[in-house]
Amino acid sequence: MAGKLTAAQGTGILLVTANVGSLFEDVSLSTDKLSVTATVQSHKPHFVAVHCQEVGGKNYEASMSHVDSFVKELLSSDAMKEYSRARVYLDENYKSQEHFTALGSFYFIHESLKNIHQFDFKAKKFKKVVGKETCSETLESTPSLEKEKFPQDYFPECKWSRKGFIRTRWALADCAFDLVNIHLFHDASNLVAWEKSPSVYSGTRQKALGYVLDRITDQRHEKLPYFVFGDFNFRLDSKQVIESLCSTATMQTVRAADTNEVDKLIFRESDNDRKVVLQLEKKLFNYVNQDVFRENNGTSLLEFDKELSVFKDRLHELEISFPPSYPYSEDSSQGKEYMNTRCPAWCDRILMSPFARDLVLKPENEEKSIVYDNIGPNVCMGDHKPVFLSFRITAGAGKPNANKHKCCVVQ
Fold first, then answer.
1. Could you give the C-alpha distances from 179 to 8, 15, 109, 110, 162, in angstroms and in order?
2. Which residue numbers delimit the Inositol polyphosphate-related phosphatase domain (predicted)?
3. Out of 24, 124, 378, 404, which residue is the most buried by the measure of CB atoms under 10 Å away?
4. In a domain? residue 240
5. What is the rounded distance in angstroms from the CA atom of residue 164 to the CA atom of residue 147?
6. How many CB atoms lie within 10 A of CB 173?
7. What span, in angstroms and rounded, lies between the C-alpha atoms of 90 and 65?
8. pLDDT tens digits along 183-242
9. pLDDT digit string, tens, across residues 356-380
10. CATH code, domain carrying 61
11. CA dihedral for 131, 390, 105, 171, sign (positive or negative)
């Protein structure tokens, strides 16, 4: 496994985001479907952080009972046996509409990592991490994290949603940093998303993400480098990408007979027997050639991936070299296929503050030790492919702040 930690080797960090609702909806699915254990075995990190969204699945009333068995199986798996300490935070209280986010944050520490501390937000002190703990009741009062659901007026159409964030704070290898699990709003209708550029949904996500960044950098606690990873629900600019994909097509508008509202848009080639290129409905995005989203990992479409640009001074991302992470087919035999419900997009991301990027990209860090990729590219893992970032923190990378973090540590 990771073996004895040395200063030259650095501390291996693995960050994973996985919107894995379907994992909990089918009791026959094992943790191998998540493939986190395989990724752990491949990269041999000392510290593993897994951020899940939709814990318990979309039908959580029926599926929440599967979560406990999933956690036990993960903690006891062969790949994780050398991880002697763990912290698991599960927001399972679906009966509390005011607070429920369905977020799950898993943290595993390898036995060779001797000095790791977690921040107590109530006591405002770091405390040494020992043993394994799982918290699932009233996370609002758990001192080792901050959890918030977005204000109700942020929700499109004023409907309650599960969207929110969980923040934890860690100190290891002379570094202290925040890890934020986040789930932002989705596109409710392809037709609405197409109406203008940027879409109304993009504006809602921008407002919510700005809220999170303001909260984790306010005056209540010392400002530290931070990693924000989860399901941002970032979408390609619908209007612009459709205009590009259907540049030579003509558009037909079909309206509902009773309301006269737009029901579907049909884009046809001008010649070639008026072949349908794209059919667009509220929950249908049926494009004639899915290969465009897979060829060269779909990177030709990254020019339409614009939602992060608003935060270019506050959030950074390593170069994307994997296909759009959503929406994959949930048919177990169609691991590489996209569903025709939405335009494929890079919803699942690992983003970081400028100072966090400096930790990842320290000159001492060999480029080959940094990997930003998806998990299970050929395997059905539900409608989202998990995304991971593997890197190493070299000893002293967090200085000159390291000394003041040590003085606030409680053994």
1. 25, 9, 15, 18, 19
2. 9-399
3. 24
4. no
5. 8
6. 25
7. 12
8. 999 999 999 999 999 999 999 999 999 999 999 999 999 999 999 999 999 999 999 999
9. 999 998 765 555 689 999 998 988 8
10. 3.60.10.10
11. positive
